[in-house]
Amino acid sequence: MQPGSAQPSQDPVSMADTERRDCNESDRLYFFYGSLMDSGNLAWILDLAEEPKLRPARIEGYRTMLWGQFPALIRADDQSVSGVIYRIENHAEVEEQVTQLQNVEGEDYERERVKILYDDDTWEWGWTFVWRGDMTELREGVFDLTTWRSGVFE
Hints:
Layout: E1 2-3, E2 29-32, H1 39-46, E3 55-67, E4 70-87, H2 94-105, E5 109-117, E6 122-131, H3 145-150
Parallel strand pairs: 1-6
Antiparallel strand pairs: 2-4, 3-4, 5-6
């Protein structure tokens, strides 16, 4: 794979959020794997003037389980999760949008740096939200965006 243009000089997984004070391209890139894959929902949550363009992508070394109707991302060797990428377009809005995303995800999820892979064999570093809550609250299952959009849940 060829690295994308947003490749930090350090291993970003080991860097704490508090150590990252500059706003570079990878600070603007978010991988979503649940209800935030819906551009209308994302626009509403972030109070965007229009629905954002989202790009299909995946991450490796993770899988999802369900927490109620929503997916929870957990580490899992030899597995991958498909989702979409959202790029915060305006550098001035990064902090505000990240705060909004963290508020939506809540205390049971934490931001984590991930390597985002694209179908054209390119990749970039970005962020996602990983489950840090009680593992006993999770169950096996697959999040279905179409079902979520229809408002019909198990």
